[in-house]
Structure to design on (199 residues):
């Protein structure tokens, strides 16, 4: 009976296999650390966007021509808002975007042609707002008694598309409470052709 010799692998074959296993371990280590880093960055991005710079998608036409349906905009969270700012606020589990017309204590009056007049708190006269962002003025849906005084800690808002916007002129929406405001809309991100500041 013939003796069968067991052929042992050569040293360079063993070394090659060890190198392959080491390279695989190193690759998996880099892969896991990259995935972990990406998860941390994604979590931070979500946290920052939720707390400081929320990104919102515009739905509807109430802010045309300033904002179009499907635009993506960025909000900047802050506590005080001025006449002319575009703000986002919660209303019936939705977020609406409208323009600040008057703040707490101010008086608002709107004539039949849609011209908006505001008397600031402490002033004696109404001043007609210069509104270059409005292409067609209209009284729109208005069931409040004019002139109207903005209550404490409330903001009077209107959409730029005055004929179709439902806003503070209607008791359905009314004035916006300061605590329901998400922030001031500062930047349009999408579409890329219209990227820029919102004014």
């Amino acid at each position: 009976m013939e003796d069968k010799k067991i052929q042992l692998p050569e040293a360079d074959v063993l070394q090659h296999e060890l190198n392959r296993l080491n390279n695989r371990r190193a690759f998996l280590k880099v892969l896991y650390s990259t995935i972990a880093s990406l998860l941390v960055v994604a979590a931070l991005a979500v946290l920052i966007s939720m707390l400081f710079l929320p990104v919102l998608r515009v739905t509807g036409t109430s802010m045309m021509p300033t904002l179009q349906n499907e635009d993506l905009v960025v909000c900047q969270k802050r506590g005080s808002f001025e006449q002319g700012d575009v703000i986002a606020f919660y209303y019936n589990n939705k977020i609406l975007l409208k323009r600040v017309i008057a703040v707490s204590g101010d008086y608002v009056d709107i004539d039949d042609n849609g011209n908006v007049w505001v008397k600031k708190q402490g002033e004696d006269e109404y001043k007609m707002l210069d509104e270059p962002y409005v292409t067609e003025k209209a009284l729109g849906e208005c069931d409040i008694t004019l002139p109207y005084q903005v209550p404490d800690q409330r903001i009077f808002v209107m959409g730029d598309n005055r004929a179709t916007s439902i806003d503070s002129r209607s008791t359905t929406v009314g004035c916006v409470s300061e605590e329901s405001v998400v922030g001031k809309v500062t930047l349009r991100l999408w579409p890329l052709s219209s990227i820029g500041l919102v004014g």
Observations:
- Residues 93 and 180 are 11 Å apart (CA to CA).
